[in-house]
Specification:
With 163 residues, the protein is an all-alpha fold. It folds into 2 domains: 81 residues, 434 Repressor (Amino-terminal Domain); 72 residues, no CATH class. The protein contains 8 helices and no strands. Helix 1 packs across helix 3, helix 2 packs across helix 3 and helix 5 runs antiparallel to helix 6. 15% of the residues are buried.
């Protein structure tokens, strides 16, 4: 994957994580970086990066984008030819990969609002791996999932009656 493809992908994921149901534009990215990171990057510079006209980032830009997207700075380079990203062994990188996979799954199931929301909620959780392990434990205990659903939906139903 090229650097430009990675930036486009990160804009798509960021838009989803922010609840926009679309990618954030280059202009929105520039504004958000200014607002949240107190640094500036121009939309035209982002365009040059994504188009491949600028195949490399300065170190300061790489660090700025890495902080904004919450990725390792080393991610923001072209992958070597034949690179296999499935061989990641670092737990933090694995968590990021899991979160991206969950967001991608949420987009695939956007027509099922409950499933879409659930996948995004797990992706946004600080430890999405733990969430999935907990789900496994719940499902391994016969009847527990059904009982939890019954108990957790009861307060929501009561709240709707009052409205």
């Amino acid at each position: 994957m090229t650097l430009g493809e990675k930036i486009r992908y990160l804009r798509e994921v960021e838009g989803t994580l922010r609840g926009l149901n679309r990618e954030i534009s280059q202009q929105e990215l520039a504004r958000l970086i200014e607002k949240e990171q107190k640094k500036s990057i121009s939309q035209s510079y982002l365009s040059q990066i994504e188009s491949g006209a600028r195949p490399h980032l300065t170190n300061s830009t790489r660090m700025l984008l890495a902080r904004f997207f919450k990725v390792h700075p080393g991610y923001l380079v072209d992958d070597p030819e034949g690179f296999q990203n499935e061989l990641i062994s670092d737990v933090g990188a694995l968590e990021d990969k899991l979160d991206l996979w969950l967001v991608s799954g949420a987009e695939r199931f956007s027509r099922d609002p409950e499933l879409h929301h659930a996948l995004l909620a797990v992706a946004k959780h600080a430890d999405s791996r733990l969430c999935l392990i907990l789900l496994d434990e719940i499902l391994e205990n016969p009847g527990l999932a059904e009982r939890l659903t019954e108990v957790l939906k009861a307060p929501a139903a009561k709240g709707r009656k009052r409205s």
